[in-house]
Design brief:
The chain is an all-alpha fold. Helices cover about 70% and strands about 0% of the residues. The chain has helices at about 5, 15-40, 45-80, 95-110, 115-135, 140-145, 150-175, 175-190, 200-220, 230-235, 250-255, 260-285, 290-310, 320-325, 330-345, 350-355, 365-380, 385-410, 415-420, 420-425, 430-440, 440-455, 460-475, 490-510, and strands at about 90, 315.
């Protein structure tokens, strides 16, 4: 490669960035609309605080995050001389959005009747997680080197199938006249290569079609999309320029609830670390290798800045890099998304957007991303590792199933333990098994997937080492448990120890023979 190609300035914007902008931008918009609803209607935070302080801080965090990852992509493109480098997508961590709302802020709001105290606890929660991420940035590269790709991508695929895809899919089919039609528009464009009139991006066409159907049905009295002019008129009251300001006193005010916060902040900080590793690996599989330490520490630093300005939601590298790259996204889509979100949040426009565009018209984009990431685990790993990927999926499936059960029982005013675990088991609902398998699902999936990969490749000592790691992580509550502590899930920890012992013995004494169901490791994939 010539020195000229290495030092040439990469293009900041290419035509494919329009597709990625509307796809990724609407993804971010959905998340912002959802968390706005959580703050207003679940935690009960006043609109003046939500639109005047929290959302401007959130917009600033997202602007810094998307701008930073655009800069990383620009540097990689300049260094390698490549024109196909795609920036890592980033935004509010979706699972954590619900955790900090329902596990941290809502219980404190219910106990104190004060939504401001709940907000302060959320800020402290992010503060603690930020330092977990920054510390993890220095061990992340080592973890990534020793962990098989199938284990990392398999666990990530579990997230994409459950927590990313299932809810959008259910909502798409709950309002099919909008959701399914918009989904077809997106599939035809992003999987089928259909080019719409005038080169308009498929994501924008889908949103426009869904919005027209929703407002048309409203005019006919059918009400698809739940839109109304009253909501549009009411949203205008939130217009106005609001700059973020330091909220350091409120951030440290939440330390009064530190005992409650640590129970979830530390394990979920580790979850963020592992998920970021997965997503960096996913980008590398798509051809773009970013420095792991810089990615992880940036998530921590940017989240810290956000919480000190008043934002109770943590920043994370998103899954979906291969999807945005496949639709032509490069560098500009990331920075442009951050700039647009900055304007929407600083000027109070989010309320108007939520009143005009039906969310169900945007959700098919998330479903598309879930499909792409789920398939990547199988496409980018050796064929023989497919069984390991399937096993790595299971903890996320268990965690999702448990969440559905918990939410259903909570709506009925009860919980699994009050109903009785034995009674649930009699009708095939194995709640205790789901709870154990799904505890620390992301990390558990990686451990199980790695053990299986090394068994398939007949590297049994490495498999045993991961089993020992699984024993330690289980003993201290990082996986297969509901919280960090000593002596958590002792039976599962002992089981991992037994697995390690068997594998060490097999490595030393066992003879091998080909297995007809698994491709031999020496064969080409």
């Amino acid at each position: 490669m010539s020195s000229l190609s290495i030092t040439a300035r990469p293009k900041l914007w290419v035509p494919g960035d329009w597709n990625a902008l509307f796809g990724f931008g609407t993804n971010i918009l959905v998340n912002v609309l959802v968390l706005t609803g959580l703050l207003r209607f679940v935690v009960g935070i006043p609109d003046a605080l939500v639109f005047g302080r929290i959302l401007p801080a959130l917009g600033t965090m997202l602007f810094l995050s998307t701008g930073y990852y655009a800069l990383l992509a620009w540097n990689l493109a300049r260094k390698t001389g490549r024109s196909d480098v795609c920036a890592l997508p980033s935004g509010v961590s979706v699972p954590h959005m619900f955790v900090v709302t329902f596990v941290v802020m809502l219980p404190i709001k219910l106990a104190t009747k004060d939504p401001v105290l709940a907000w302060e606890a959320g800020l402290t929660w992010v503060f603690v997680q930020s330092f977990v991420l920054m510390a993890g940035g220095f061990i992340g590269p080592y973890v990534r080197r020793i962990t098989p790709r199938a284990a990392l991508l398999g666990s990530l695929a579990g997230i994409s199938i459950t927590f990313i895809s299932m809810s959008p899919a259910a909502q798409v089919f709950s309002t099919p006249i909008i959701g399914v039609v918009c989904f077809a528009v997106i599939l035809a464009s992003w999987f089928g290569g259909v080019r719409y009139f005038g080169g308009v991006p498929g994501g924008l066409v889908a949103i426009a079609v869904g919005t027209l159907i929703a407002w048309g049905s409203t005019a006919l009295g059918l009400g698809y999309g739940a839109l109304s002019m009253d909501k549009v008129i009411g949203s205008v009251a939130n217009f106005g320029l609001s700059f973020p300001a330091p909220e350091i006193a409120h951030t440290f005010g939440g330390f009064r609830y530190l005992g409650v916060i640590l129970v979830t902040a530390v394990p979920f900080g580790i979850y963020d670390l592992i998920e970021a590793l997965d997503n960096v690996e996913s980008a590398a599989a798509a051809g773009d290798s970013f420095p792991t330490t810089r990615v992880l520490t940036a998530d921590g630093v940017i989240s810290l800045i956000g919480c000190l300005l008043g934002n109770p939601f943590i920043n994370a590298v998103y899954i979906g890099h291969p999807g945005w790259k496949a639709m032509g996204g490069r560098i500009g889509y990331s920075a442009a998304t951050g700039l647009i979100v900055l304007v929407l949040t600083w000027f109070g426009i989010i309320a108007l957007v939520s009143a005009v565009i039906p969310v169900v018209a945007i959700l098919p984009i998330l479903l598309y991303i879930g499909m792409l990431i789920g398939s990547q685990a199988f496409q980018e790993s050796p064929h023989r590792h497919a069984p390991a990927i399937v096993l790595a999926l299971l903890p996320q499936l268990a965690a999702w199933g448990k969440t559905q059960i918990d939410n259903a029982l909570a709506a009925a005013g009860t919980n699994a333990h009050d109903v009785g675990l034995a009674k649930l088991a009699q009708v095939g609902v194995l709640y205790s098994g789901l709870e154990t398998l799904g505890g620390g699902a992301t990390l558990a999936g990686i451990i199980l997937g790695a053990i299986t990969v090394f068994i398939i490749d007949r590297e049994l000592e490495k498999a045993a080492a991961f089993a020992l790691a699984g024993m330690l992580l289980t003993f201290f509550g990082f996986i297969h448990g509901e919280g960090i502590g000593i002596g958590r899930s002792p039976e599962v920890a002992t089981s991992y120890l037994g697995v390690a012992a068997i594998l060490f013995l097999c490595a030393k004494y066992a003879a091998f023979h080909p297995h007809p169901a698994v491709e031999a490791p020496q064969a080409a994939d």
